Structures are given as structure tokens and as C-alpha cells.
Amino acid sequence: MLMLSRKLSENRKKKINWIKWDKVCLDRDGGGLGVRRIREFNLSLLGKWSWRLLVDKEGLWFKVLVAKYGMTDGRITRGGRQASLWWQDLCDVRNGIGLSIGRWFENNISRKVRNGEGTLFWKDSWLEGGSLSTRFNRLFELALDKNITVADMYRRGWDAGGEVGTLGVDVMDKWMWRPDPSIGYSVRSAYHLLTHLVPVPMATHNDVIWNKVVPLKVSLFAWRLLNNRLPSKDNLTRRGMHLEDSELCLGGCGVAETIDHLIVGCDMSSSLWIKILKWLGIFGPLPNVVTDHVSQFCNIFPVGKESQIGSQVLWLACCWSIWKERNNR
Ligand SMILES: [Zn+2]
Fold first, then answer.
1. Burial 137-174 (b: 16+ CB within 10 A, else e)
2. Measured in angstroms, how far is the CA atom of residue 254 from the centroid of ligand 1?
3. Distance 67 CA to ligand 1 centre (A)
4. Are 250 and 326 in contact (CB under 8 A)?
5. What is the pTM of this model?
6. What was the pLDDT predicted at 9?
């Protein structure tokens, strides 16, 4: 598990949350680490089984469940306390019970009616707004046949031309997953739905952070660096940490230690950057803010993907070395 808290030697019990969990759980394009939310992911997987309960009634596993728990009104019964935990969880997803996010599964499935044979007029959700039994509860109470299909309702003289104008075609009804009507249920789309991932603007410097050449630990370091979440002295003080020694830079320059100062501003680091530029045969100033610095440094070579990857690796290696050096002091 990724440790985003850092224990300090003086105060081992206190942990600092460096980045909000919500941000960590965003995908990489959104500027996060793409860590999955376990609960929502688990629900998405259970949703897959709930979906299969609807669309795969010929499957052996379906028949086993029917044999074990029995059927009521076309649905496999929940069973009592003896039912397996997996089955109980699955029923909760199917029925939308006991979940803070409510009927997320049921509200996102609907029946696409073609010949109307396989769809229950009252109980299945086949029109906008959920099943007719919940929308018109009192009418449903009066209905004599609560399990009548749409096709039977049609045959009993219910007029064509309305919502079911296409009835009569020889095509089976089928289930639709609203977030993805053409493909059907997928764990991915359900997870997306459950986590309400708001599309955020493309995070900058993602190509640097997730450069494929560098080890993952360097990417994670870069991610913290470019989000200003490394435990520099100013960041520690801002989070209520009492520092035994001073808040000044360890380079002895007399300036307060911030990430910008440490990585690019301090004499110690800027002399390194100047040497690197000289070695590359390039002369000119670099910005003293890390996020500007990376943009400029990684574009110092003529255009070309390989040279850009190379300059990114170089930039990351220098930052990594500066940070290591600082921690050794
Ligand atoms: Zn300094």
C-alpha cells in the first residue's frame, strides 16, 4: 500500500496526510495515482454478477443458485441468514438495499422491448423513470395479473401506436445498461458511475511524471514533487509539525526551505543545473519555480519524442539526486 504519510523521528505517532485520498484515487490523466476505491470497485464487480443474473439465465451457475435459493416472481430469492455473504451482498446490489448510494444498479438498467414476450409489464423497468409498479403503485395494487408480460398486455387489446408500436417483430427483448447501451454492463463503466469521477482538466507534466523509462519510485517522487507534497520544511511547518532545527535551507544559504528553493533556487541546486546545461552545450537562465523549470528544461532540445524523453529522464534524475543529497545532510 502506498504510504503517503511520513513519520518523523521525533513524533512517531503523528501522521500527515499529504494528499487528499480523492486526489490519489483520480486516474492518471486526471492528475491522480489511479488507486482504486476498494468499496466501489467491489460493488462494480458484484454489479457484473447482478447483470449476469439478468442476461445469462441459461448458465449453470444461475441454475445452481435457483436450486439453492428458489425463485419468487421470476427472481432468485434472497434466502435467509444461511445464504452466503457473497449472495447477500449481490442481492443488496440487485435490490439497492442498505447502500448509501441507493439503487444505482436498478436505476441504470432498462428493458429494450421488441416483441414484448420477455418483459414484465409492471415489474420490469422498460419505460423512462423506472418500473410501472413503483411509479403507479395504486394501479399496480389493483392489477389482477401482476406478472403479465408487455406482449400479453398488448394482446389483450391495449392499443398499438404508443410506446410499443414495434411490438410484433420477432426479436427478443433485451436488457440495456444505460451508461453503455450498445455494449452492456462493464465493471469499468459501473466503477466510473459509482465514483462520479468528474472529468478534470488534463494534469500538466503527466508525461514527465509517468515517463516509462524511470522506475515507479521515481514517478511517485515526481508526482509528489510537482504537486508540492514532499516533506520540505515549509510543508512540514504548514501541517503543524514542530521542527527541532531551524526552518532554513540545509545548504546554509540562510533562505527558508521550500520545494522551489531546494530543487531549483538554492545555490547548491542551481550550480548543478548550470553544469548540466553547460554539459549539454546550452546557455541561458532557468526559472526558479519547479513547475516552470520542468516545462522549460524538458523542451530545451529540438523537437523530437526521444530527445524529450531523454531530457525528462535527466530532469528527474537531477531532482532525485538533489532530494537524496538534502536528506543525507
Ligand atoms: Zn538553500
1. eeebeeeeeeebbbbebbeeeeeeeeebeebeeeeebe
2. 7
3. 73
4. yes
5. 0.51
6. 43
